Amino acid sequence: MTELRIGMRAPDFTLEAADGGSLALSSLRGRKAVLIFYPRAGTGTCTKELVDFTGLAAEFAATDAVLLAISDDGLKKLGNFAEKHALAPVLLSDPEHRAIEAYGVWVEKSMYGRRFMAVERATFLVDRGGKLAGVWRKVRVAGHAEAVLEAARALR
What we know:
This protein is α+β, with helices and mostly antiparallel strands. About 30% of the residues lie in helices and about 30% in strands. The strands form 2 sheets. Strands 2-1-5-4-3-8-9 form a 7-stranded mixed beta sheet. Strands 6-7 form a two-stranded antiparallel sheet. The longest helix is centred in the first third of the chain and has 12 residues. It is globular. The N and C termini lie far apart (about 30 Å). The model has no long low-confidence stretch (mean pLDDT about 95).
């Protein structure tokens, strides 16, 4: 698979949302989209990351950017996660890894000497025409939402 880079067309997808609907990335043409891939709903780091984006949701909206958070968790778990933390991003479920693999974020990880496959924490900024305008891989949460917001603001 080719690694995604700025300027490339963002792979389209349609995924089920925790709120009961579904969303196709292509339906957002004309607006900016922030795709937040995260490993697991309800874990400390993932919660902090999405709470950080939620705290800046109005500022992202002011740039005409839609926040989409994608994991392979099931819809019920995502619904509970969104409700418990009053999360602003649209939480999308990708149990079949369609978007996760298209964006190259299904990766081998290792913890305590054990190797396993999981979702890499990564963020992609998609411009109004459907092209990648920002790529953040192996994200560190502290300051990340703010950095993505600055990129969204700079994007016309």
